[in-house]
């Protein structure tokens, strides 16, 4: 049976200050710890009207300080924006605050548009091409190990040193992350929710088939992140999903909006193609009673053969979102 975890993206809800989304993320981490989830990850996006979590390293520190057992980490840090040394230092500090509980999920994508990526680091235009070497440096610095032979920064160390170290995960929504994860012998998680599963099986197979065992991970360890929403009844679940369905209509057009309330989302007039798209989403998305959603999650776990599944849930009503995680925890036997 796979381990079950949570991805929280700090979603901006219409009618509430964006800062509340960050505070809700911290509260959700505490809630999910009591429910028995294995990990709690937070994402990195920039200049995004919907996803307002911009600094996972800070949010991880806040969550780690108010939790005791659950692993806490990033999904992920967008490494091309930053110096590998600085990321290593940040996560070594986090590990000092919560020894043995910190995860460092890494991505190559900008988590933003090109202009925003340039604003974040005008000198990093070529950094995505250096991603593999940056991963190698970061891994060495995190574990106080030597860098590559004749490395110009061979005498530089990342502090504070410690007996434990963050666990690196390679993330991705294409086969690139699978290749990098397999090459370095790192755990790999595919963003199933981001592509609606497209390319997921291929990326997982590529990862397993090309995996090169490492000292810390002699066997491949794979995961996926899925979107799911559960409620006591099918009607209630579909009601809360209305907000997400409308958001997905706009996403299909390349537009991103704050999460509307279900009432506001339902009050809009939709064209026939739009309504057909919403109906399709309601059929294919993991939304419904806890038992039906849990069954679909277990079926997908068996189909993919992954070791871990992270669940991401968007909802305008924060209580309904907390309830969804509680119902699924019960149904999944956490």
Task: Describe the 3D structure.
There is one protein chain. With 334 residues, this protein is α/β, with parallel strands linked by helices. The chain has a single domain (3-230, 287-331), classed as TIM Barrel (Alpha-Beta Barrel), CATH 3.20.20. The protein is built from 13 helices and 9 strands. The chain has helices at 18-35, 56-65, 84-97, 114-120, 131-142, 175-184, 192-195, 200-209, 234-252, 262-267, 272-284, 290-304, 318-331, and strands spanning 3-8, 39-42, 71-78, 102-107, 167-172, 188-190, 222-231, 286-289, 308-312. Strands 1-2-3-4-5-6-7-9 form an 8-stranded parallel barrel, surrounded by 8 helices. Helix 3 (84-97) packs parallel to helix 5 (131-142). The longest helix is centred in the last third of the chain and has 19 residues, at 234-252. The mean pLDDT is 96.
Question: Which terms would index this structure?
Answer:
16% strand; TIM Barrel; 46% helix; 334 residues; 13 helices; alpha/beta; 9 strands; eight-stranded parallel barrel
Task: Summarize the helices and strands and which ones pair or pack.
Blueprint: E1 3-8, H1 18-35, E2 39-42, H2 56-65, E3 71-78, H3 84-97, E4 102-107, H4 114-120, H5 131-142, E5 167-172, H6 175-184, E6 188-190, H7 192-195, H8 200-209, E7 222-231, H9 234-252, H10 262-267, H11 272-284, E8 286-289, H12 290-304, E9 308-312, H13 318-331
Parallel strand pairs: 1-2, 1-9, 2-3, 3-4, 4-5, 5-6, 6-7, 7-8, 7-9
Helix pairs in contact: 1-13, 2-3, 3-5, 6-8, 9-11, 12-13
């Amino acid at each position: 049976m796979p381990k079950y975890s949570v991805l929280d993206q700090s979603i901006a809800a219409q009618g509430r200050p964006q800062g509340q989304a960050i505070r809700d993320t911290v509260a959700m981490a505490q809630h999910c710890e009591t429910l028995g989830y294995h990990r709690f990850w937070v994402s990195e996006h920039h200049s995004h009207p919907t996803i307002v979590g911009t600094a996972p390293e800070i949010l991880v520190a806040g969550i780690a300080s108010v939790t005791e057992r659950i692993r806490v980490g990033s999904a992920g840090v967008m490494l091309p924006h930053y110096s590998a040394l600085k990321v290593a230092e940040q996560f070594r500090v986090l590990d000092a605050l919560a020894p043995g509980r910190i995860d460092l999920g890494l991505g190559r994508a900008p988590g933003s548009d090109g202009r925003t990526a340039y604003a974040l680091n005008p000198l990093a235009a070529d950094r995505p091409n250096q991603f593999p070497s940056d991963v190698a440096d970061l891994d060495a610095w995190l574990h106080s190990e030597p860098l590559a032979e004749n490395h110009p920064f061979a005498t530089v160390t990342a502090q504070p040193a410690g007996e434990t170290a963050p666990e690196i995960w390679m993330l991705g929504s294409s086969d690139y992350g699978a290749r990098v994860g397999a090459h370095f012998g790192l755990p790999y998680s595919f963003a199933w929710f981001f592509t609606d599963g497209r390319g997921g099986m291929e990326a997982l197979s590529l990862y397993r088939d090309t995996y090169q065992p490492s000292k810390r991970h002699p066997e491949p360890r794979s995961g996926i992140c899925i979107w799911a929403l559960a409620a006591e009844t099918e009607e209630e679940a579909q009601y809360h999903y209305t907000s997400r369905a409308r958001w997905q209509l706009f996403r299909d057009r390349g537009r991103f909006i704050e999460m509307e309330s279900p009432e506001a989302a339902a009050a809009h007039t939709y064209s026939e193609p739009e309504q057909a798209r919403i109906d399709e989403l309601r059929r294919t998305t993991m939304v419904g009673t806890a038992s039906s959603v849990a069954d679909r999650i277990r079926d997908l776990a068996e189909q993919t053969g992954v070791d871990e599944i992270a669940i991401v849930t968007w909802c305008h009503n924060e209580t309904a979102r907390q309830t969804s995680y509680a119902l699924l925890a019960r149904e999944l036997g956490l």
